[in-house]
Amino acid sequence: MGIMLYNTLTRQKEAFQPMSGSEVKMYVCGPTVYNYIHIGNARPAIVFDMVRKYLEYRGYNVHYVSNFTDVDDKIIKAANELGEEVPRLAERFIEAYFEDTGALGVDKADLHPRVTETMPEIISFIKALIDKGYAYEADGDVYFSTRSFSGYGKLSSQSIQDLQLGARIEPGEKKKNALDFALWKSSKEGEIAWESPWGSGRPGWHIECSAMVKKYLGETIDIHAGGQDLAFPHHENEMAQSEALNEQEMARYWMHNGYIQIDNEKMSKSLGNFVLVHDIIQKHSPEVIRFFMLQAHYRSPLNFNEELLESAKNSLERIQTTVNNLKHRRRESADFGEAGRWKETASKHLQRFIREMDDDFNSANGITVLFDLIKTANLYLEEKQTSKEVLTSFLDTIREIGSALDIKVETSEGMLDEEIEALMEERVQARKSRNFARADEIRDHLKEQGIILEDTPQGTRWKREQS
RNA sequence: GGCGGUAUAGCCAAGUGGUAAGGCACGGGUCUGCAAAACCCUUAUUCCCCGGUUCGAAUCCGGGUACCGCCUCCA
Asked: What is the annotated signal peptide range for this record (predicted)?
């Protein structure tokens, strides 16, 4: 049946059908780089990375572009406060972004265009909008005239009249209509600026994405994604600009992820509950954070706090433990019993996983299937005789699902050093001679070093304790 | 005021007409030299409330309530 996805534009699930065969053009709005990213920024990074990887898993070739807003009011403000040059500050936080999202298992996009490197395209985009009568200059600023674009409001399903009520004109703005928005802003004395036909200034916020999408992916793309709050005004405005100029649909599918809350409250500076990824990964492993995020559907609101992370850690460990136990059993057991009724089990689970994920990237249900498989594998491990073939099918399937979601289903084994191996051997002898005091002493000693021993009918297995 | 989202066990979270997935935590049991891991049992007669439609609703309709978000360059 193929992939179904929820399209914000039509407010329903639709069959996913890219424009050209298996090629998918996907654009995700990236961060404004003036600080470390917080946990709310991490969600779109993670969920759309998941979407991308799942599409690839399903055989699509994804062209993935995500921008950096590396010049805007907030960056200028932050730079002033720190007494740092804008480009240096932006560069610093771009590096931090890659570091943080990389830890969370987010792959780099194929391209990460920056505003400052897209200036010629932005300027000609604006010029073309003025020429077509969709934008006007006012004293060095350029505004998009929302009234001139008939489709304005269709993404957020609001009428111009309703929007008008909430809109206002800030002091100093020279727009004709409160709903108009800046394409180009003239610079103040001493501010970082670029030359343009309207004098020196910098781009407005929304125009960069329109220019970048067109430059790097084309006039129409398949998927345009971002946080829910970007739907209005950011995406609405992007869409208006692009469709006014190109006279064709900007994106076929619009995807928006739900918000993250901290203890059921909005994360905001005034509440002082900002959680930076940079900080939280000092205390909780980034793999757990990714797993936690994917345990909820991407469009649902998601509450975040450390207890929830702790619980997610235990859940993930259940998977890792089973993988470890499967590996141990396959290694230690000389059994090659009949596969029997277990033979098809893993592949059936894999089919279920695909069915769930095909339904609007429901990673929550995908992970449930993984747990069902874990349960089945654990039951199989209770059998006296196990077949290597079945053990391998369980292991391979768990790994396949793990890699489709890019969650960490197995812990790194590392090498045991000689001292530890010697102690384990000594303990085997101690247990044989029923010297349990010594055996327990060794087990406790190793536990202090993060090595956990478990005795099974197939011998002693070990695993490293997770941080 | 306009637009939108969410309300399911102690906690998290699936489930859009067919009789409540899964995970975490808790309790009991099996296994074990003891543990650990695992398995088994137990844990929501019920899905925010009130009406309605239906043979049948957490799921559809009407009306409420609560919380959250957007309309303020905040993902």
From this structure: none
Return d(Cα A240, Cα A145) in angstroms, integer: 10
Helix axes A286-294, A363-381, angle to 10 degrees: 110
Cα distances (angstroms) measured from residue A332 to each of A266, A325, A329, A460: 51, 10, 5, 9
Report if CB A204 to strand B is under 7 Å: yes
Residue A38 marked ligand-binding = no
Do the strands A451-456 and A221-227 form a parallel or antiparallel pair, or are they unpaired?
unpaired
Taking the C-alpha atoms of residue A276 and residue A262, their distance in angstroms, rounded to an integer, is 12
ipTM exceeding the 0.90 mark: yes
Rounded CA–C1' distance between A308 and B11, in angstroms? 8
Task: Tell me the C-alpha distance between A136 and A240, whole Å.
Answer: 15
Grouped pLDDT means (10 residues each) for chain A, 467 residues: 88 92 96 92 95 97 96 91 93 96 96 96 96 93 92 85 70 80 91 94 94 96 93 92 94 93 74 85 94 94 90 95 93 71 90 94 95 95 90 96 96 76 88 89 87 87 79
